[in-house]
Amino acid sequence: MRPVVAGNWKMNKTLEEARVYVEKIHKLLLKIRDTDVIFCPPFTALFGIKEQLGELPAFLGAQNCHWESSGAWTGEVSVEMLKAVGVDVVILGHSERRHIFNEPDEWINKKVLSALKGGLKPVFCIGETIEERKQGRTNEILHHQIQTGLGGLEDGSDLILAYEPVWAIGTGLNADQDQIHDAHQFVLEELTGIFGQQGRDIPVLYGGSVKPDNAGELFKVDGVSGFLVGGASLKVEDFISIVDSVNEIQKGV
Ligand code: PGA
């Protein structure tokens, strides 16, 4: 399976800053042949970056979408609108959407179904809080998020999953190799429970304080197919170093 490294820029970078970033990373990406790279800038930079990415083997991702195709939904953006500016991927169910904006599993499910129907690949995010982990409820939470978020879905071929423990996001404190191993194996079991053998082919990314100095060791964990990177995706040097580590390990496989 080709690894995936996605950069989630969150609410960072104006169009001009995004353009400077892509100009800088353009040349460096040309030598990345064994890893799929996804840039997820804010909505306002999507179109500008698409033109600039040109023929580069990189994908464009949005950070959210609505489940309806149009209508009276102030402040929302539809799958069709994203497709029309060249977006390939959409992050759904990110912990900041779940916990700060109170997005329930039911909405996330509708978004996943609508993204797939409209031809966008969802990066469907799941993960437990520190309280849930301390209470020994990690698997229960992941099970619930997966079963509700993917409810009604029969084909998993265009799906990407991201396991992101909430306590590791933006804290500088990544989950350790054992924690990641256990969670990813559990997620893969859940996915095969839903999709059969196809579930094994769904990339499961890890996210939460991935940095240049831990990417190599974390990518070697069985069941990790790549990363969803927040803070460290904002600097070209850091992001390309993470992509490089994954690509080099993959080349050696
Ligand atoms: P982080 O964020 O890399 O800054 O921890 C990851 C994410 O939110 O996807």
What does this structure look like?
Strands 1-2-3-4-5-6-7-8 form an 8-stranded parallel β-barrel, surrounded by 6 helices. It is α/β, with parallel strands linked by helices and 253 residues long. The model has no long low-confidence stretch (mean pLDDT 97). Helices cover 43% and strands 15% of the residues. It is built from 10 helices and 8 strands. The chain binds 2-phosphoglycolic acid. The site of 2-phosphoglycolic acid (PGA) has 13 residues, from β8.
The major beta sheet can be summarized as:
8 strands, parallel, barrel
Q: Kindly report how far apart the N and C termini lie.
A: 11 Å
What is the 3D shape? globular
Q: Reading side by side through the largest sheet, how are the strands ordered? A: 1-2-3-4-5-6-7-8
Series of secondary-structure elements, N-terminal to C-terminal: EHEHEHEHHEHHEHEHEH
Mean pLDDT equals 97
**Beta-sheet strand percentage?**
5-15%
Helix content class: 40-55%
Uncertain segments are none
* Assembly context of the chains: single chain
Give a topology summary.
Layout: E1 4-8, H1 15-29, E2 36-40, H2 43-53, E3 58-62, H3 79-84, E4 89-92, H4 95-99, H5 105-117, E5 121-126, H6 130-134, H7 138-149, E6 160-163, H8 177-195, E7 204-207, H9 212-219, E8 226-229, H10 236-251
Parallel strand pairs: 1-2, 1-8, 2-3, 3-4, 4-5, 5-6, 6-7, 7-8
Helix pairs in contact: 1-2, 7-8, 9-10
The protein binds 2-phosphoglycolic acid.
Brief account:
The protein is α/β, with parallel strands linked by helices and 253 residues long.
